[in-house]
Design brief:
single chain; 429 residues; alpha+beta; Alpha-Beta Plaits; Porin; eight-stranded antiparallel β-barrel; five-stranded mixed beta sheet; 10 helices; globular
Length: 429
């Protein structure tokens, strides 16, 4: 199942939580906590991220970290890769020790993107206060498996590896000690961060939120693949040799739309490679891209007679409409929605009625030949994160995550197929 998108910004933090599966503790004894500390050290050294705070609790954990490079999330060493390696390694340790099999952590880890300067101090306190909030200790200092003791200059498992981060945090306090700061936080009461961290997934000022939106909108440009260096000019003689990645532009008769199809051609008895041009037959085309009105195409005229210049990948969805079925992840009745991609903007018919504004969307090719698109819509009450993949047969499958002010996160799965709009309404193509 696809996931909501991950983006990164300069001077931004990742607040991460990961929970165990139901009826299972992640840490059963002290040795388990220390095993996780060792893995944290390993991955921190490997990926060079900053770790400002952590709290390891029996059923879940909290991490507050920062990537060393804003482009790291877009390439090797991003949050997904780090957390997958960390949690997978610990699961292998745990399963081996306790003679169990299968998953240890529930679903995927959760992240919130946070503006660093105004929230770093508060977030360290938020992380360190978790054991006390859950009645695991009388005070933050009493619980041994958080980074709080590190800030009090006590010996800690990760003391050497968090010294730089500790110095950064303490400089923000001036002459005040971290213990004094924490006492002030406790006396003041709730930090009021839970809603933004756990439900919205974004914490920061207006300018920061605008940067998040701009980053998401511009992500498409970085994901587009480079055009092929050479066009196919000669027919292949060996039926088992790959021709290479080629982009064909298929004209949609009567709609004025264009769709691009990325695929790997192999010459065989059913392929058509004639007179220096790569031609794909109707039988060999993926169904999603074979959207030609057959009645309007003469049998004497080839549909795609030549390889043309590659348009933007965004054009794959431009002008299309999709009928989908939304199903609450928590259970409940399904509902129908119509998704439209027009003039570089995405619209959900249901969310449009709820005042979610049209949004830019990004499209990219996946390694498995599928197309992946994602977008984030905003409204006065919250945000909606969309992400889905589309198979060659024109089947769409994805997730929607609704994060509204003051409400729990609502996750939905959805499936659908390509539909085209006309004067008679939507008809399956």
């Amino acid at each position: 199942m696809p996931r909501p998108p991950r983006i990164s910004l300069e001077d931004a933090l990742y607040y991460i939580t990961s929970r165990c599966i139901y009826n299972q503790d992640i840490f059963k004894e002290e040795a388990d906590y220390h095993a996780y500390f060792e893995l944290l050290k390993k991955y921190k050294e490997q990926y060079k991220f900053k770790l400002y705070a952590y709290a390891l609790l029996p059923t879940h954990f909290h991490l507050l970290l920062e990537l060393p490079d804003v482009d790291q999330e877009e390439s090797k060493g991003g949050i997904s890769e780090i957390m997958h390696g960390l949690n997978s390694s610990y699961t292998k340790y745990f399963n081996g020790k306790y003679g169990r099999k299968g998953h240890l952590f529930r679903d995927r880890f959760k992240t919130a993107l946070v503006e660093k300067d105004p929230y770093l101090l508060k977030l360290t306190a938020y992380v360190h206060l978790n054991p006390q909030k859950l009645n695991l200790s009388f005070s933050p200092a009493d619980y041994p498996y958080t980074s709080y003791s590190l800030y009090l200059n006590k010996e800690m498992p990760l003391q050497k590896f968090m010294q730089e981060e500790k110095d950064i945090v303490l400089k923000l306090l001036g002459q005040k000690s971290y213990e004094q700061f924490m006492q002030e936080i406790i006396k003041a009461g709730d930090l009021n961060l839970h809603n933004d961290l756990q439900k919205k997934g974004v914490l920061g000022g207006l300018e920061f939120r605008n940067r998040v939106m701009a980053k998401f909108a511009n992500k498409e440009e970085k994901q587009e693949e480079k055009a092929p260096d050479n066009e196919i000019k000669e027919p292949l003689k060996n039926s088992n040799i790959k021709v290479g990645t080629t982009v064909l532009v298929v004209a949609l008769v009567g709609l004025g739309l264009t769709l691009i199809a990325k695929f790997s051609l192999r010459e065989n008895k059913g392929s058509v490679l004639r007179r220096g041009s790569a031609v794909m037959t109707n039988e060999s085309k993926p169904a999603f891209f074979n959207l030609i009105d057959k009645a309007a195409v003469s049998s004497a005229a080839p549909v795609a007679a030549a390889v043309r210049a590659k348009p933007k990948l965004q054009d794959v969805l431009e002008g299309t409409n999709w009928q989908i079925t939304l199903t609450p992840a928590s259970g409940g009745a399904s509902s129908s929605d119509t998704l439209s991609f027009s003039q570089k903007r995405f619209v959900s018919a249901i969310l449009d009625q709820k005042k979610f504004v049209p949004s830019n969307y990004s499209v990219r090719n996946a390694d498995n030949g599928k197309i992946i698109w994602e977008t984030m819509q905003t409204s006065p009450s919250g945000i909606a994160l969309w992400r889905a993949d589309i198979s060659e047969e024109g089947k769409m499958k994805g997730i929607l995550s609704l994060r509204k002010e003051g409400l729990a996160v609502e996750d939905f799965t959805f499936t659908g197929e390509y539909w085209k709009g006309n004067s008679d309404g939507f008809k399956n193509n």
